[in-house]
Amino acid sequence: MPRVRVEFTVEPFHEGDLGAHVQAALDALRADGYAPDVGPFGNAVEGEATTLLPAVAAATAASLEAGATGIMLSVRATVADDADAFLAAVRPVARALGGHVVGPDHLSEGAVPLVWRGKLVGGLQRPGPSDLRNGLSNLISQIVAELGGELAELSRTDKQRAVRLLDERGAFAIRNAVDEVADAMGVSRVTVYNYLNATREALPPRTGL
Asked: What pTM, to 2 d.p., does this model score?
């Protein structure tokens, strides 16, 4: 269910004085657990549509009972903040590589800032060299489990798929990853590079917004 923002102005309007009719609406919203924004020319409140709209209806009734002569409402769906989804997507990759995601208030020296829509939302605590080696092994183990067989036992098509999955999860950003993947597959480094190049060439071109 979408989040909505409800903006409302209660009449009669008295500049610099909320009046009992406005205060009644605000008190009703606060009693339902909301924290409305009170402005000089109107008020606003945000929340999940299924719970906020009934609360606004109750606040409207309370305002009318307190002497309001009119209430103007504007309801708009708000754009969801995808920062949580972004961090959720980063966490498994970070764990597989031996690192972890930290909050924006816990960034240590050497952490990679994670920025979403221009806002700092967290950081990636980078692993040490030994953790990186373990991270590549963890990634390979994940692919083996997903494809149902050791890399060396896979068909050519599944080996190409394995390389694509490893690439999507950042495996080839690890030093000497091509060598280790080639050994695990029982193929040459050139073959892994060929699979990798074919995978990347098959990706659709990125378009600017």
From this structure: 0.40
